[in-house]
Amino acid sequence: MKFMKYSAVLALVAFSLSLGAFAKDRNEGRFTLSSPASVGSTQLRPGDYKVTWEGSGSDVQVKILQGKNVVATGSAKLVDNPTRQDSVTVSGDSGARTIDQIDFSSGHKSLVFATQPTAQNR
Asked: Tens digits of per-residue pLDDT, 38-49?
């Protein structure tokens, strides 16, 4: 009887772990800004952010969140990240820095902002 319970629990655990293989890819990543930078018309302050994207192929819709609040939305190109490192690429001088690209090592992907994202209405 004990063997049956042990076998049932073991089978349940094995089944639960195998479900992860069928889960869809997580279309999200995290990044940190050490100095202010803008995304579209939204000025992001230094801090930690989460970015999520929807869509397949190279054109995706992006949401940038700080905590649970969406602070910016827009379009980007989803491309392979050959460096496989986490990084944020910005352009412009210290007074008008703009985020151009966000690289994620975990999914080996990068978001390239080809068009300007827009601020989210709060």
From this structure: 887 889 999 999
In single-letter form, the type of residue at position 110 comes to: S
* Separation CA 102–CA 85 (nearest Å): 10
Reduced to 3 states, what is the DSSP secondary structure of residue 121? coil
- pLDDT at position 55, please? 86
Provide the whole-model pTM. 0.70
Spatial distance between the Cα atoms of 117 and 73, rounded to a whole number of angstroms: 5
If one counts every other C-beta atom within 10 angstroms of the C-beta of residue 18, the result is 9
In degrees and rounded to multiples of 5, residue 54 shows phi and psi of -125, 145
Regions of the chain where pLDDT drops below 50: 3-4, 6-24, 117, 121-122
